[in-house]
Specification:
This protein is α/β, with parallel strands linked by helices. The chain has 2 domains: 15-33 and 294-391, Aspartate Aminotransferase, domain 1, CATH 3.90.1150.10; 48-291, Aspartate Aminotransferase, domain 2. The protein contains 12 helices and 15 strands. It has helices spanning 36-39, 48-60, 71-84, 95-112, 132-137, 141-144, 162-171, 196-207, 277-291, 295-313, 341-347, 370-386; strands spanning 15-19, 22-25, 30-33, 88-92, 119-123, 154-157, 175-180, 210-214, 238-241, 252-256, 320-326, 329-334, 350-351, 353-355, 359-362. A 7-stranded mixed β-sheet has the order 4-10-9-8-7-5-6, sandwiched between helices. The chain has a 4-stranded mixed β-sheet with strand order 1-2-3-13. The chain is globular and about 60 Å long. 47% of the residues are buried. The structure holds pyridoxal-5'-phosphate. Pyridoxal-5'-phosphate binds at residues 94-96, 99, 127-129, 181, 185-186, 214, 216-217, 242-243. It holds the Pfam family Aminotran_3.
């Protein structure tokens, strides 16, 4: 019997080593990592610059309290704010905590304006984390079930539907912010219309709401821009990120600009570990690597190429409902539940993921070779061609 709480069910694969876009199990079998620790290791495994930064910092200073100046934290903050076009940042240890900071920020923004019971608009099928506030914001009744009472202060609209948010605006006079993923990840790799974020920006301006984007999965180059909102002209007031920021080090960030950047004062928020020297120095190596060359452009190109290959190779396959994505965040929606493909992929030496029940999701590294890309694409195509839905 395992001494681990059973939150992940039975785990049958043991990975012990990684290098570049490959990982190895305890029997020495290698896999192409098509999921990157769920959008974490964009730079691949054992990335030299990240490993060097971690060792350097571990040799110098692992941790001091946020009661003191932390030069690696300041340095990362400067670079991340520049990449995000934001003014200020609060560092956390995870995505959910970054969203907690954003939710607290929105509530304080509302309370400071004198709004009673400030309320945040969130979306159907959203995923924002597993803490109580972020679980409440998440649009998944199954994930919420058993954890009632959820928090007050949220109202919900369908994703990719501006008119539905207008209806909420008319019904609820205490809305202070909208929190949305630019591309829904766990919800099934859902890419909204190109004008969704600009229209949301316009709506938020008109109502003096904070536009808050959850870029925990989409940020740090994943969609082919540093942040997904940079595909449009719409700048949010608040953006959260985590996953890819540390390439495996636990770190999250809540960034803000303008009036939103001035909401928190001393004592309003904090974290013992958030912004610690180790995580920040490692993440700085990630940001440097992402912004220092053309890697993010290559993510856009590689993503286009993979999307097109899937469309070509799966054309006319009647099990396929839709093929979509942005950058290296790709989803192939099938007409029936297809969780079993995860195990079948392993036999081919591929790590893939299925989300929202029927959508094969790929979140590969940014550094796959042409050969690795072909192996991943051809393997997934083969799996889908051979897939026989069991009708239950
Ligand atoms: C993963 C994820 C989170 C939660 O991040 P954790 O680090 O697991 O707390 C929140 N929002 C989105 C969009 C995510 O993909």
């Amino acid at each position: 019997m395992s001494t681990l709480m059973n939150t992940y069910g039975a785990r049958t694969l043991t990975l012990v080593k990684g290098a570049g876009s490959r990982v190895w199990d305890d029997a020495g079998k290698s896999y192409i990592d098509g999921i990157s620790g769920i959008a974490v290791c964009g730079l691949g495994h054992s990335h030299a610059a990240v490993t060097r930064a971690i060792s350097e910092q571990a040799d110098k200073l692992l941790h001091v309290s946020n009661l003191y100046n932390i030069p690696p934290q300041q340095s990362l903050a400067d670079k991340l704010c520049r990449a995000a076009q934001m003014d200020k940042v609060f560092f956390s240890n995870s995505g959910a905590e970054a969203n907690e900071a954003a939710i607290k920020l929105a509530r304080k923004y509302g309370n400071d304006k004198g709004v009673e019971n400030p309320t945040i608009v969130v979306m159907n099928s959203a995923f924002h984390g597993r803490t109580m506030a972020t679980l409440t914001a998440t649009g998944n009744a199954k994930a919420q079930q058993g954890f009632e009472p959820l928090l007050p202060g949220f109202v919900r609209a369908p994703f990719n539907d501006i008119a539905a948010i207008e209806v909420l605006a008319a019904e609820h006079k205490n809305i202070v912010a909208v929190l949305v993923e630019p591309v829904q990840g766990e919800g099934g790799v859902r890419v909204p219309h190109a004008d969704y974020l600009p229209k949301l920006r316009e709506l938020c301006d008109r109502h003096e709401w904070l536009m808050m984007l959850d870029e925990i999965q989409t940020g740090n180059g994943r969609t082919g821009k540093y942040f997904a909102y940079q595909h449009s002209q719409a700048l949010p007031d608040v953006v959260t990120t985590a996953k890819g920021l540390g390439n495996g080090l636990p770190i999250g960030a809540c960034l803000a600009r303008g009036k939103a950047a001035e909401v928190f004062g001393p004592g309003n928020h904090g974290s013992t570990f958030g912004g610690n020297p180790l995580a920040c120095h490692g993440a700085e190596a990630v940001v440097d690597t992402l912004t220092g060359g053309d890697l993010i452009e290559r993510v856009a190109q590689r993503g286009e190429q993979m999307l097109q290959s899937f469309k070509d190779k799966l054309a006319g396959n009647d099990k396929v409902v839709d093929i979509r994505g942005q950058g290296l965040m790709l989803g192939i929606e099938l007409e029936s539940p297809c969780l079993e493909l995860v195990a079948k992929a392993r036999e081919l030496g591929l790590l893939i993921n299925v989300t929202a029940g029927n959508t094969v999701r790929l979140l590969p590294t940014f550094i796959m070779t042409d050969e690795e890309t072909d192996e991943l694409v051809n393997g997934v195509v083969q799996l889908i061609e051979q897939f026989e839905p069991n009708d239950e």
